[in-house]
Every structure is written in structure tokens, then in C-alpha cells.
Amino acid sequence: WRHPSCFCEEYQVNDQTIQLSPFSQAVGIELDRWEEGRPVLGVDYRHDLCGNPGMFHGGALGGILEAAAL
Questions:
Q1: DSSP readout, the chain?
Q2: Cβ distance 68 to 30 under 8 Å?
Q3: Which residues pair with 31 in a beta bridge?
């Protein structure tokens, strides 16, 4: 079950739409482009998303994977 307020950022290209959650927005996940009818998501490297020096935190990576799965 999903509460309607859990999705707020919506991207639409032609007849295709994806919605990103507030968590995705907080991490900075954005729609980079569409490839062969599929959205390609991206997030810029930020120091506050690091776990080990120079690496994304596992929770941030999990959020990216979750956003891609939706």
C-alpha cells in the first residue's frame, strides 16, 4: 500500500511517466535521460552521502536501486 503523498516529483516524456519518492529527492536522484523507453536515473556524488571515504553509503545505493525498481 502506498500513501498518495509518498510520490511527488513526476517526470514525463511523451506518454511515459515516472514518479520519484521524497527520499529519492532528498538523496538527489533525478531522471538523467530516457534510453529505449526506459528511464535512466542519476545522482551526483556528494560528501554527505559517503560511507567509506570516496564511496557512496550503502543506504544511498539502496535508495538508488529502490528508485530504479519503481
A1: ---GGG--EEEEETTEEEEE-HHHHHHT-EEEEEETTEEEEE----GGGBSSTTSB-HHHHHHHHHHHH-
A2: no
A3: 41
The angle subtended at Cα 7 by Cα 2 and Cα 43, nearest 5°, is 125
The bridge status of strand 30-35 relative to strand 38-42 is: antiparallel
- Of residues 21 and 7, the one with the higher pLDDT is 21
φ/ψ (deg, to 5) at 45: -65, 130
Q: How many CB atoms lie within 10 A of CB 61?
A: 15
pTM recorded for the entire structure:
0.67
Beta bridge partners of 60: none
The amino acid at 29: I
